[in-house]
Amino acid sequence: MLETEFQYFLDNQDELVKKYDGKFIVIKDKEVIGAYDTFVDAYFITQERGTKLGTFLIQQCLPGEECYTTYVRGNIMETGSKTGGELTATILTKK
To answer: How many CA atoms lie within 13 A of 30 on its CB side?
Structure first.
């Protein structure tokens, strides 16, 4: 599903950390298309820009292996919206 994007992160992690250290980067088709301070910003701004869910990976850009597995669960309410929704995440881990 998003294995290509995750592999891109793994293959380029050192360079990406130098450029985006600590940011939540959005990767689509082996390209960083955005960098944000929070996961929530990365998620909603990327959607607002018309990028279809399931076609991009949000990855916190940190050195080492601790960022390889992320667990995200919770309800998020979009600013200005009267309806909230469950935020789901695909978990990818280094093999």
So the answer is: 5
> Cα(84)–Cα(77) distance, rounded to whole angstroms?
4
Question: Helix, strand or coil for residue 69?
Answer: coil
Q: Could you tell me which residues come within 8 angstroms of residue 33 by beta carbon, excluding any fewer than 6 positions away?
A: 26, 27, 46, 51, 56
CB count in 10 Å sphere of residue 78: 14
The amino acid sitting at 42 is A
Is residue 20 a contact partner of residue 66, using CB atoms and an 8 Å limit?
A: no
Please report where in the chains the tokens 């450029």 appear, as a residue: 19
Q: What angle do CA 5, 9, 15 make, to 5 degrees?
A: 145
Distance CA 59, CA 6 (A): 8
Judged against a pLDDT cut of 90, whether residue 67 lies above it is answered with no
pTM listed for this prediction: 0.75
Residue 58 contacts residue 24 (beta carbons within 8 Å):
yes
